[in-house]
Amino acid sequence: MPNGPDLDALFNPRAIAVVGASATPGRVGNLVFEGLIASGRTLYPVHPGEGTIHGHAAVREVDALPDGVDLAVITVAAERAVDAAEACARRGIPFLIVVAGGFGETGAAGKALEARLAAIPERFGSRILGPNTLGIYLPHAGIDTLFVEHAADALAGGGGVAFVAQSGSVGVEALSLASNIGFGLRAFVGLGNKCDLDELDFLGHFAADDATACLGLYVENFERGRAFLEAAARVSRRKPVVVLKAGHTDAGAAAVSSHTGQLAGADRVVDGAFRQFGIQRAFDDEELCDATRTLAALPPASGSRVAIVTPAGAYGVMGADHVETPARRGRISMATLTEATRERIRAVTPDFAAVGNPVDLTAVADDSMFAAALDALLEDDGVDIILVAAFFAPPGVTDGLVGVVAERVRRGLKPIVAFTEYGPKTDAYLRRLYEAGVIGFPSVGRAVRAARFLVERAERRRALGGPS
Amino acid sequence: MPNGPDLDALFNPRAIAVVGASATPGRVGNLVFEGLIASGRTLYPVHPGEGTIHGHAAVREVDALPDGVDLAVITVAAERAVDAAEACARRGIPFLIVVAGGFGETGAAGKALEARLAAIPERFGSRILGPNTLGIYLPHAGIDTLFVEHAADALAGGGGVAFVAQSGSVGVEALSLASNIGFGLRAFVGLGNKCDLDELDFLGHFAADDATACLGLYVENFERGRAFLEAAARVSRRKPVVVLKAGHTDAGAAAVSSHTGQLAGADRVVDGAFRQFGIQRAFDDEELCDATRTLAALPPASGSRVAIVTPAGAYGVMGADHVETPARRGRISMATLTEATRERIRAVTPDFAAVGNPVDLTAVADDSMFAAALDALLEDDGVDIILVAAFFAPPGVTDGLVGVVAERVRRGLKPIVAFTEYGPKTDAYLRRLYEAGVIGFPSVGRAVRAARFLVERAERRRALGGPS
Predict the structure, then answer these.
(1) Sign of the C-alpha dihedral computed for residues B367, B373, B374 and B375 taken in this order
(2) Which of B44, B83, B122, B453 sits at a 20 to 30 Å CA gap from B115?
(3) What was the pLDDT predicted at A313?
(4) What is the pLDDT of residue A248?
């Protein structure tokens, strides 16, 4: 696996100092401190004037911090943040998160400030995340420095996606939106301006983290492009790596240039390199989230033949159309079911049901028909991926359908992707599916796209000579 | 405009009879009756055994109905429904909605039953919607025969989209999903098995309905294809016509064949014909809803040059990428802003903001910066369509941003499409935007696609020689 800095203490710190911690609701220093309480770690608020903050005695200055602090989150504004970071580094704290903006992204004065930050690792050995970053969020550990509103742990956590984002807004908005339907996050990292730690460092960390099943990265400019690609190729033999490299058209690249002050790589070069080095590419935040939550949770597809089960014929038709329409990635096709499979489905469905592919159970569908159809498709060697329209509108379908699908997902024989549309209750049903272990989407198009990501994943791994 | 049956009494009936109306909660005959109470029309429940239903005295049989009933909704099961329909027709009721399934879609016996229904118009003059249909839903009139859960009037209504769906599930699920973020429905019609009234009849009706601004149709098979196309070409000179013709790939077409017992038209023929006759094509229900809610609400685009305003640079980048990536429809490009426009935006934004296109207001954005940027773009002749990232996360952005955008939408100078991502609150913010008159989407990709639909609309109208 790639070698890189040992980041274990950043993600599993013994004690955490919050420089600029505040008792005033709404302040960044308050939000950050509050977000760390659930961690159960030893916390030190650092503030010259306050007595206690959320019951923790404030330390008046960085120099007065006791030993054993592995992480300092610096919440004060830019200029003071640099002073504080230098003080923390001198104090021997190995990891610093600098949340303030007002650095390189704001012009010459900011660039000079950022240069002082960037000098710290070499001068003192401390490693820096940021500046201009939301920091880190680890739902499983109750560590959360994100000082903006985002999804609840229950919806965001519990899974294997390591999500690394250069842009805080993309990170948080995508995280929150994905979490509406259950995301399965292992860790979130906001890279910010990357004055020190960058995407390659975190790629190496999460590659070695057994609880990480899939990496998703939003990157605008690569600091060490060649090394990143080579590392990604090693990682993606074992774990999917999905990258949203914004700026793939000329106009997009020009936009990146104004946004980050960097030149985006020529897009076609990026595209070819990603393919060669085993990276799957996403083109917006929805794709990045959809891909990672799918790839982290589901077994690989052993082929590209898709079967669809639905109680609403029209969704079978639209699904088949989406499957057969050429798309940007993952060539897939509708499976041809064996006569044995058709017979098994015919035996439990009315005469007017369609037992081809898509399997249309019709509006008389009930939970047991779904179960029988899914079982038949799981045992049909001509089917590699199953899409199921988990629609709860037919009178015979109960909430038990969630369990019917979940049980078959648990067997792990083939990837099963659900989709459901149920008006205002759509997200609630998708969450219930997710909590039961079923990856689902609110539209047939996104479910088919998820199937493409699974097939593309298998292609990438085969090309790299990884396990198939 | 196309001539066809006069359907006014179907959509504006003086009195309505519900055959099989029931006082038992959950029964179709109960749900249908309840859904008509808000209409304020004279209602006659028809039931041999019940006394009163929701305070309305039941009529024991169809023959006992008084004069003046323009519409009978027949909620009893298939065989009895045919008898009831014949009785209603003999009684002289001009419009019948037959909701029961169990007709042509279920095999030979059902086909025979359906043939009896299909004979009614010629024998008695009554016109039939269905069978196997959810019927009609007119939020503005409180008329709602949809007996399955769907979106509330407040979210579904208040607009100019006439939505006609051959599949009840597509109709309701799409309607409900679209309504989560505000749909703007004028009318919903479920075509069902089309034993009599079909898509062409409703095309003609809504073409002549001044309150209908856009037609959206989900059709699996066309009863009278050539006539439909010719009528659509006449309609689309004045109003957008968007059609989802499922089954456009071979596999999709095969699925339609099992689903409806009809052969789907060869896809390429459909595609070319749609273009020639001014129809815009959608490929799934999400597209159909996105397209119609956009086209019904926004002014035509006078060109294809898009500007993007965002407080989050990354979304400008992704948006520019989506704009510049070739897609299935509506070739668009990023606008080049004039120096005057750039100066105007520069005057109200910090130095580190990007005043090219996309306009990146950065995280220091506030309502007034959005206002100034939108005003500048509205007055820049090089900009045809504006996309605005209505993100409420930046500290300087307040709920007042909704009004800022809405005011500029109201001027009607250029189409303005919003998008917002705000975690679990995304839909709530989209509803607030919608209620203020702003069409918004929960992802940048869907907002860009909406821009493509606007440009495609202008192309279609120009090709037909309609007003430009």
Answers:
(1) positive
(2) B44
(3) 87
(4) 53
Instruction: Give φ, ψ of B298 to 5 degrees.
Output: -110, 155
pTM of the model: 0.90
* Nearest-by-Cβ selection for A445 from B177, B249, B284: B284
Contact by Cβ (8 Å): A337, A357 = yes
Q: What is the ipTM of this complex?
A: 0.86
User: With contacts defined as CB-CB under 8 Å, which chain B residues touch A180?
Assistant: 423-424, 426
Nearest residue of A to residue B169, measured between CA atoms: A312
Alpha carbons A161 and A240: distance in angstroms, whole number: 10
Asked if A255 and B313 come within 8 Å (Cβ–Cβ), the reply is yes
| Chain A 109-148, residues with CB within 8 Å of chain B CB atoms | 110, 148
DSSP per-residue codes, B243-299: EEES--SHHHHHHHHHHHSSPPPPHHHHHHHHHHTT-EEESSHHHHHHHHHHHHHSP
Write out chain A residues lying below 8 Å of B320, CB-based. 247, 249, 251-252, 254-255
Q: Which token pair is A235? A: 């990682």
Q: B311, B298, B323: which is closest to B420 by C-alpha?
A: B311
Q: Kind and range of the H or E element at B438? A: none
CA A127 to mean position of chain CA atoms: 24
Interface of A with B in 345-384 (CB under 8 A): 350-352, 354, 356-358, 360, 362-363
Question: What are A357-383's pLDDT values in tens digits?
Answer: 999 998 889 999 999 999 999 999 999
Residues 6+ apart with CB under 8 A from A142: A36, A37, A38, A39, A40, A153
Max Cα separation, chain A? 80
pLDDT in tens, A182-238: 889 999 999 999 999 999 999 999 999 999 999 999 998 888 999 999 999 999 999
User: CA of B172 to nearest chain A CA: how many angstroms apart?
Assistant: 8
Under DSSP, the state recorded for A104 is G
Residue that the structure tokens 């977000």 belong to: A35
Q: Do B169 and A363 touch (CB under 8 A)?
A: yes
Give the closest residue to B145 by CA, choosing from B75, B217, B53: B75
Contact B385, B332 (CB under 8 A): yes
Q: How far apart are CA A171 and CA B211, in angstroms?
A: 42
Distance between CA atoms of residues B408 and B298, nearest Å: 12
Residue of B nearest to A106 (CA): B352
State the amino acid at position A123 in one-letter form: R
Q: What is the DSSP string of B92-133?
A: T-SEEEE----SGGG-HHHHHHHHHHHHHHHHH--EEE-SS-
Is B317 in the A-facing interface, judged by CB distances under 8 Å?
Answer: yes
Distance from the Cα of B72 to chain A's closest Cα (Å) equals 24
CB-CB: which of A176, A317, A391 is closest to B220? A317
Closest residue on chain A to B180 (Cα):
A424
Distances (CA, A) of A457 to A56, A107, A451: 48, 41, 10
From chain B, the residues in CB contact with A110 under 8 A are 352
Measured over the CA atoms of residue B104, residue B106, residue B109 and residue B110, the dihedral's sign is negative
Q: Report residue B79 as tokens.
A: 């065989």
